[in-house]
Amino acid sequence: MLVYRTPAGRMSGSSATESGVIHGAVHVPLTGLVEHLGDLDPARPTVIYCASGYRSMIAASVLAAAGFADVSDLLGGYTAWTFAMVAS
Fold this sequence. Notes:
By secondary structure, the chain is an alpha/beta fold. The chain has 3 helices and 4 strands.
């Protein structure tokens, strides 16, 4: 699982992951995704998320265009994930 968030300092002056992260996620800012493609396994199923879902949608498109076979975007991002976890 990958998390694509804005680097620290761009979200209301705080760290982009300050609101929380999903355990086991690899953190890569969207602005550095292309540089990190070689660090990722394109054959491994990949779920991408960000805070609300906008940046992860872009990241999913970038990975799919780069040949990643199984890319999913966590709809609603981390915000939706936290609501789902509270509700369950």
